[in-house]
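Duplicate of #3305? Posting structure anyway:
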């Protein structure tokens, strides 16, 4: 019973459409009708600006972190990382937004924050370094996912290795269109960094 509660709670938590909520409540805008149509932080940045983008990104990170802590809160034997992955699935395919969600980057970061804070700091540093050098959010996200996975190979933490492989796969899969645009040199670059 506790297992089912954790799984359902993690999915519903991940399903909270932060971008949709912030856009509609504070900007009277459905961000799904603008930019990439995505509910994540990047499209929020592009559509609504830096402040809204930061808020949505932080909210999405927190979803992953809280979900990762659910097994501890319920004193369950479910692995923390499994609960986090379920939240990422909820974020990508949210029941509250017709199963059209974000690309898994921020919520995946939240899992890492909840499970391995030092790795989160490393990932954040890599992300902003890549972003500064390339100006592509999508490319920076994919490179960060790849480097974080490679890092885990040296930790000896098998569950972390498996989950980071899965999360990295999610990130690359969800950025298929971005990869094509990068190749075609039509992917938008950020202008604020």
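Output from current build:
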């Amino acid at each position: 019973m506790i297992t089912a509660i954790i799984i359902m709670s993690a999915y519903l938590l991940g399903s909270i459409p932060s971008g949709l909520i912030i856009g509609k409540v504070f900007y009277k805008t459905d961000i799904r009708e603008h930019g990439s149509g995505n509910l994540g932080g990047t499209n929020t940045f592009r559509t609504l600006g830096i402040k809204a983008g930061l808020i949505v990104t932080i909210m999405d990170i927190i979803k992953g972190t809280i979900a990762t802590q659910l097994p501890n809160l319920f004193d369950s034997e479910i692995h923390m990382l499994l609960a986090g992955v379920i939240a990422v699935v909820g974020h990508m395919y949210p029941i509250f937004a017709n199963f059209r969600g974000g690309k898994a980057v921020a919520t995946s970061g939240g899992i890492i924050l909840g499970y391995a804070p030092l790795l989160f700091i490393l990932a954040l540093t890599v992300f902003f370094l890549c972003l500064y050098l390339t100006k592509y959010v999508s490319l920076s996200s994919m490179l960060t996912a790849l480097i974080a996975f490679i890092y885990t190979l040296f930790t000896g933490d098998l569950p972390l290795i498996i989950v980071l492989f899965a999360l990295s796969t999610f990130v690359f899969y969800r950025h298929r269109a971005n990869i094509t645009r990068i190749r075609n040199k039509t992917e938008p670059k950020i202008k604020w960094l």
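Confirmed duplicate; merging threads. The chain has one domain: 2-184. Residues 50-73 form the longest helix (24 residues).
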